[in-house]
Amino acid sequence: METDKTVNESSSSAAPSRESSVLWAGRLAEKPEAEAFAFQASIRVDRRLVFDDIAGSRSHVMMLGKQGIIPAETAGLLDGELARIAEELAAGKLDVDGEAEDIHSFIEALLTRRLGDAGRMVHAGRSRNDQVALDFRLYLKRALALIRDEIAETLRVLLNLAEAHTETVMPGYTHLQRAQPVTLGHWICAWASGLERDSSRLTDARKRLDECPLGSGALAGSTLPLDREETARSLGFARPTLNSMDSVADRDFAIELAADCAIIATHLSRFCEDIVIWASEEFGFIDLAESWSTGSSIMPQKKNPDFAELIRGKQARTAGNLMTLLSLLKGLPYAYDKDLQEDKEALFDSLDTVRNCLRMFRGMMGSARFNVTRMAAACIGGFLEATDAAEYLVRKGMPFRKAHETAARIVRDCIEAGQKRIGDRSLEQLKDCSALFENDIYKALEPINCVRARGLPGGPAPVEVRCQIDVLRGHI
């Protein structure tokens, strides 16, 4: 994510030592060996939570001061130093210590090193269990907003394309067989509809994410007079979490966002499958910009849709990450367990993957060109107008099942005669199948007229596609 770039990956010379940053050191006389310590440390993954950890700590210490749990002067001192640390990190003057156990330990040890005993007051009434749950939620609220922004930008690109192609006729497919005429604008609106639902799911997920676990402690809260409403409010949450045990055990929000990411990636994968097919010589519907294609190391003529293929392939990561989280949580006792440390890497990867894929897809589509002549030509042959012929007879009073059989018979006759479309039959030949056919059948079966006739809500008629575009724009 963007905020991660502000934190240097190297260790700071001013950073506290490993021994001083272990928050649980007082209980155990023996410390893990270096390799074992590194195995259970999470700093490599949770370092991206540094600004969220600082924000949570600032809110927490100010509440401690207001409640008289620590002196108000000390709360102000801690808040000021936390703000200074955030500024130094953002400016690159301070690096996260890669040898620390986790980001929480790093910040607290740094405070203690700079402020002495005052730094040791920051953790009153708090456990790493509710602290990490808070940091995770704060981070995800920001990440969720960034992905929604990426979806919105992608929708704008797609809807601009749809608007330019409301009358660009092309085959619609079922079973990858030519089915009925549609328009490119209608097809792109179908893609946009999927992305709009993705954005809606993220909005809905935010409601359940928007609860503050701070003050839940390890699992049973605290005997100190904490003001959970105040910390929730100051951190921008809608409310505190309801149950302290559930607060530290719950990772439903992580699963939900992982599922949302997997669905977004699945949509992009399906869109890119269309693009890969369209870019083939056999279809030739789309010409991807050279900057969004690659060549072959051995075949000089190749122009490969590698970006579309990679976006399609990235879906596997998001599906795997969702299964990782589901498997992680399946057998856990319902409180905090160290296993939960594994929750972030999978979800962070899905968030990063989806955000990157949306950017790539948007750039690829924004620079693509469509072969509208090839698309229109592909509507000739394959009898895409057969359903329209059947519905023509229905409008004349024939029962649909009989109309369907009549149109199917005409298709068989055309195939036997080597004809590519129903309109190649003479009116006399058509009347041999049904006396209801008149000269107006030929105009009705032209691909553009087949499309224009389908003006029901949701249909491919240009006027209806423009309505769909307006509705989708209203959701951005």
Structure characterization notes:
This protein has helices at 18-21, 34-40, 43-46, 50-66, 72-91, 103-115, 128-164, 184-209, 228-234, 244-249, 252-278, 306-330, 343-366, 372-377, 386-395, 400-417, 427-433, 440-444, 447-452, 462-474, and strands at residues 169-174, 177-183, 211-212, 239-240, 286-287, 369-370. It has three domains: 2-124, Orthogonal Bundle (Fumarase C, Chain B, domain 1), CATH 1.10.275.10; 129-167 and 184-371, Fumarase/aspartase (Central domain) (Fumarase C, Chain A, domain 2); 386-474, Ribonucleotide Reductase Protein R1, domain 1, CATH 1.10.40.30. The strands form three sheets. Strands 1-2 form a two-stranded antiparallel ribbon. It has a two-stranded parallel sheet with strand order 3-4. A two-stranded antiparallel sheet has the order 5-6. 59% of the residues lie in helices and 4% in strands. With 476 residues, it is mainly alpha-helical. A hairpin with a 2-residue loop joins strand 1 and strand 2 (177-183).
